[in-house]
Amino acid sequence: MVAGDTAEPVASPGFDIERVDDYQCWCMHIDGQRLLVDPWLVDDLEAGREGRLFKRAHQRPVAMRPRDLKPADLVLLTSALPTHAHRPTLAALDRSLRIIAPPRAVALARRMGFRSTIALGAGSRIDLDRRITLTGIRPRFPFGAFSIGVLFESLADGVRVYLEPHLAPERHPILEAGVDVLITPVERIRMLGFSLSMDLEESVALAKRIRARWVLATGTDARAATGFIPERLWRVESGAEAFDAVVSLHIGEGRGRLLAPGERLHIPARRRRG
């Protein structure tokens, strides 16, 4: 648990954000509904034979296992890339779970036998059981064609959370209205001259512009990856060591969080005008 932000039980009203692993898996607890984002719950992340292109192991125990998911839970994939749609984890899940994802990831889920899928593309919006809305946000090049960021909004209390796994757009009307929480990378990864993620300076500038009340770091510890791609092609510019201090300076003390697996942040309801 996070000091000063005690979470209520899962079934209670409100919006809690839980970090599930030490990479980029999150669980949104919204008015009794759980949405698991980009689950990596078993085995390693691998690309190429025996992980020769890319391999990453968890550095800390994950806070959830496939058996912990309930039939009413939802799984949200932000991409069909194996670092977001982890095949061994998906293979271990009950095929009756609902999968929400961009079209390529929906096609993957269907091939794996998931019977209930909902497509969420960039610019589309879905309403889940009249409790939660999800809006797909198109990231910047090179991810715009196959990945999405997601804006979560609780219809009960108006809490808005924007999760961007890679590169936020320069401007987006729905974000300019303001969010409560920004979940963002803070370590820039460059490959062949292209940025694959935002750095701390860019993330804090985005948080200020969209008036985020909290900033949570995701996609952390890029240097933990091994294989040809991270060892030969990546250049990692870490800002994690200065994260708390920089966010405190620009957003407010205690407003930047590097949550550990199993830690939660409780987001209070927005104050209603009038």
Please provide a written account of the structure.
This protein has 274 residues and is of the alpha/beta class. It has one domain (15-260): Metallo-beta-lactamase, Chain A (4-Layer Sandwich). Helices cover 16% and strands 28% of the residues. It is built from six helices and 19 strands. The protein has helices at residues 87-92, 103-111, 173-176, 200-209, 228-233, 243-250, and strands at residues 15-19, 26-30, 33-37, 45-47, 54-56, 74-76, 98-101, 116-119, 125-128, 132-137, 149-154, 160-163, 181-185, 188-191, 194-195, 214-218, 234-237, 256-257, 264-267. The strands form four sheets. It has a seven-stranded mixed beta sheet, covered by helices on one side. A seven-stranded mixed beta sheet has the order 9-10-11-12-13-16-18. A hairpin with a 2-residue loop joins strand 14 (188-191) and strand 15.
Offer a concise description of the structure.
The protein contains six helices and 19 strands.
CATH fourth-tier homologous superfamily: Ribonuclease Z/Hydroxyacylglutathione hydrolase-like
Structural class: alpha/beta
Our measurement of the CA-to-CA distance between the termini, rounded to an integer number of angstroms, reads: 34 Å
| Global outline | globular
- Which CATH class applies here? Alpha Beta
| Largest sheet descriptor | 7 strands, mixed
Tell me the CATH topology. Metallo-beta-lactamase, Chain A
Task: Tell me how many strands there are.
Answer: 19
Roughly what is the average pLDDT, rounded to an integer?
92
Counting DSSP H or I runs of 4 or more residues, the number of helices is 6
> C-alpha Rg, in Å?
17 Å
Order of helices and strands: EEEEEEHEHEEEEEHEEEHEHEHEE
- Assign a percent range to the helix content: 10-25%
Name the CATH architecture.
4-Layer Sandwich
Spatial arrangement of strands, main beta sheet = 8-7-6-3-2-1-19
Quickly count the domains. 1
Low-confidence stretches: 1-11
Provide the β-strand percentage band. 25-35%
